[in-house]
UniProtKB/TrEMBL annotation, chains A, B:
Record organism: Urochloa decumbens
Family: Belongs to the group II decarboxylase family.
Obligatory cofactor(s): pyridoxal 5'-phosphate
UniProt entry keywords in alphabetical sequence: Decarboxylase, Lyase, Pyridoxal phosphate
List of residues that carry N6-(pyridoxal phosphate)lysine: 314
Annotated Gene3D superfamilies: Aspartate Aminotransferase, domain 1, dopa decarboxylase, N-terminal domain, Type I PLP-dependent aspartate aminotransferase-like (Major domain)
PANTHER family associated with the record: GROUP II PYRIDOXAL-5-PHOSPHATE DECARBOXYLASE, OS10G0400500 PROTEIN
A single MF term (Gene Ontology): carboxy-lyase activity
Protein name per Swiss-Prot or TrEMBL: Uncharacterized protein
């Protein structure tokens, strides 16, 4: 069929196996060095100005390719000093975002194979591994079988809780609108607590729920900042009486601010009674359910949930991103999110008959394209096993207990809310500031700024009942007891300085 | 401060640098071997049954960790044979999903550093690199400066076009509802062609646009299956007259089915006149704009666009996932998608004053958490340079031209729509079947099944004007002229067999 045309570009061989291996080995060494040295960086460089990196880099991409060594040198010189080092063992901010050797290996397989399991046919083993691994996870965490494929439900790996919330809100909304007509969208109401993650409100907004139909139920210290089911019931009944349609209730196991736990069973009963979708967001604390001693929070009432989500990418040694979403009714999800254009019609979806159904995961999420996340989570579960993952969780809980006791034993401090997992919320409360809330907040802000300013640790804050609270979220893959002891030493030293400055 | 408590789990060291390096090097070798051998696998195993992998794997996660070698051996034995091999040089289905040594290296850096640039402060250099790299990309593709940070707009890296569509639809919707009130959501209308990707309809549904307000404008061979601006204008005027609110128009440069190009400038003028948001989806063909000879499709009229998206993860050597989204009004996007809970308040966002603003990318996307995709795209641009990327694109376009000519020169076949990029749409059209459309379709279905059944290539189909069409989407990182010549030989041989069977 004719000769090869002249091809000036035959030198482009972007997947040459030897060149690939050479470059990739160099990056592995670069990262190993980074992990060896990560505790030498300021956890968060305190003196950065927005725009610093932009000034260092050229205004446009290079015309010609550059050697990997130069790229890595630029990462070392220009980028690393400007990062906040989430893998530092002294990173205690937000929630942990675990990296691990197994998570990395799994992600490398995902990225290297680079298959796209949006349809079963588009990569059968990738889609099926996902069904296997979400069942494995559900069993490990003690979820009821109705949320697992093996029990008639099913799961999917998404990128974030936000995605999971948007998908389940869409499913709940369309289930309601199918009965009521689309104009009822103006009447749909969703419920959460004042501790629920902001992503829920954003998700509700994205799917078109009127912002004025977003009910925020107050919590208090009396319920440990959990969402009181009685208050939800009152709100729901009031809305129903006013002609609104209660749609969706979001319960959280391990809130972002304080690690609070909502009473899933009681909330589930309210949801059932009013035909609402109950979603349980266990983004952070869901990982702890791998340990029997933490399982009840998620398990008690989970059989009333329409959906449950948790993030192995937080505290479960699975590099970002990976969010497990389980649903009791897979049809509710897929009937809201399915599309069936001609260019995606394929054997798997059209000839299953009474054989096991092929899963087309495009109908379980927002996007069509997706990554082979299942292999990452599968490698993590294989490499560490349930026992290793329990040990990982317990190591941090042990450290958090120790820290909580240390804080409680220091009369200058107080623990603001009893710790449940590995998040400790505390503040300075010098006795001479009793009654002076503004000054007390100022002292705590100053303490946090002073500690973070050293670069030797990074923590973030929260405000509850008007009080400024410091959060120590323990969970880094390299974080162990010594780092927690060190940060307590640091906190005590800076507390001395701040209190002295305020003459307290 | 007391002694270390007993910690039975001190053996869990998931980021030990030496163990990390050892495992990661092993995975690199595994993948290099995979790339060496990928053309020995059937591109798509034709005889797989749904449920095969599930039967091979245990029902639950192991209690104890297992060696990496065992895991990799299971990947080799159980998983690889069940994959569709998107990196095979003979994968011509859907659109390409490029892997490359640089894309992999960049993703390794992203995954290894595992920082989360949702806020500027949460990893300043990561957020800033993203602003730099989206400007680099925009300049490379010839986008107008109003879509770049350097010209008052800005960009973000998301996971998929679907996400970009949901975000921009939300922005457009909320801009309209801010004026009209939320009840106007029932009146909002969106427009696309019958060739627009199904993800647009799904996105519109997710954000709460009534499905009955989704207008599908027919295309035809006369316009090369591009969306006729005149027909859009008629539809928009009819809707406006009927009290609807024209909201959003999606134009595509390089449709999924046929690679058609909508007339962006003319559509932009209609959109402007009626106050609609114009989004340009260049998911696949946007990559070609790196070459001046393909730039006009995207460039001509792009200054009228409110947003443009394209996927470096398709044909731009950037491993999945990576979608560039540029917007002219960053405020429209962020005012629809921003949240500002207490636990995310931080220095960068509150003290910029008249310094360069810090970008909090959480307000540019659906999710809060996100990956450091910028470093991946940056490594690709650095390693290959504009010249290398042009050569990559031209190599495939050259091969597509050759294939198109070969098809046209064979009287048994026809090219269904003139090729613009690297997608060739063709079919068997034996003269004796003239007028017998059903039989002609059957012959083509059979040809596609026969070719895919060999495992030596994988293509997918499309249906246009009722005709079954075979798509050859050229673009794999390892695909070169020889593979295209081979698939043409294969097609000719199978065509002989099929036509003989039908006695044609």
């Amino acid at each position: 069929m004719g000769s090869l045309p002249l091809d000036a570009s035959s030198s482009v061989r972007p997947l040459d196996p030897e060149a690939f291996a050479g470059d990739s080995h160099a990056v592995v060494e670069f990262l190993a060095e980074y992990y060896r040295d990560v505790d030498k960086f300021p956890v968060r460089a305190a003196d950065l100005e927005p725009g610093r990196l932009r000034k260092l880099l050229p205004n446009s991409a290079p015309e010609h390719g550059e050697p990997l060594e130069e790229v890595l040198e630029d990462v070392r010189r220009d980028i690393l000093p400007g990062l906040t080092h989430w893998q530092s063992p002294s990173f205690f901010a937000y929630f942990p975002m675990n990296a691990s050797a197994a998570g990395f290996a799994g992600e490398m397989l995902s990225v290297g194979l680079n298959v796209v399991p949006f349809l079963w046919a588009a990569s059968p083993a990738a889609a099926e591994l996902e069904t296997v691994v979400v069942d494995w996870m559900g069993k490990l965490l003690g979820l009821p079988s109705r949320l697992l494929f093996s029990g008639g439900g099913g799961g999917v790996l998404q990128g974030s809780t936000c995605e999971a919330v948007v998908c389940t809100l869409t499913a709940a909304r369309d289930r309601a609108l199918a009965k009521l007509g689309h104009e009822a969208i103006l009447k749909l109401v969703v419920y959460a607590s004042d501790q629920t993650h902001a992503t829920f409100q954003k998700g509700a907004r994205i799917v078109g729920i009127p912002p004025s139909n977003f009910r925020v139920i107050p919590t208090s210290a009396a319920s440990g900042y959990g969402l009181p089911a009685g208050a939800v019931r009152v709100a729901v009944e009031r809305d129903a009486a006013a002609g609104f349609v209660p749609l969706y209730l979001c319960a959280t196991v391990g809130t972002t601010g304080l690690g609070a736990v909502d009473p899933v069973r009681e909330l589930g009963e309210v949801a059932r009674r009013h035909g609402m979708w109950l979603h349980v967001d266990a983004a952070y604390a869901g990982s702890a359910a791998v340990c029997p001693e933490f399982r009840e929070y998620l398990q008690d009432g989970a059989e009333l949930a329409d959906s449950v989500s948790m993030n192995p990418h937080k505290w479960f040694l699975t590099n970002n991103d990976c969010c497990c979403l389980w649903v009791a009714s897979t049809a509710a999800l897929t009937s809201a999110l399915s599309t069936d254009p001609e260019y995606l019609k394929n054997v798997g979806t059209t000839t299953t008959g009474n054989k096991p159904a092929a899963i087309d995961y495009k109908d379980w999420q927002i996007s069509l394209s997706r990554r082979f996340r299942a292999i990452k989570l599968w490698v993590v579960l294989r490499r560490y096993g349930a026992a290793g993952l329990r040990a990982h969780i317990r190591r941090h809980v042990t450290a958090a207990k120790w820290f909580e006791r240390a804080v409680a034993a220091d009369e200058r401090f107080e623990v603001v809310v009893p710790r449940k997992f590995s998040l400790v919320c505390f503040r300075l409360r010098p006795s001479r500031l009793a009654g002076n809330d503004a000054m007390n907040d100022a002292v705590n802000r100053e303490l946090l700024t002073a500690v973070n300013g050293t670069g030797r640790a990074f923590m973030t804050h929260f405000v509850v009942d008007g009080k400024f609270v410091i959060r120590l979220a323990i969970g880094g893959a390299m974080t162990d007891m010594q780092h927690v002891m060190d940060v307590w030493d640091l906190l005590q030293g800076k507390a001395d300085e701040v209190l002295q400055r305020y003459q307290l």
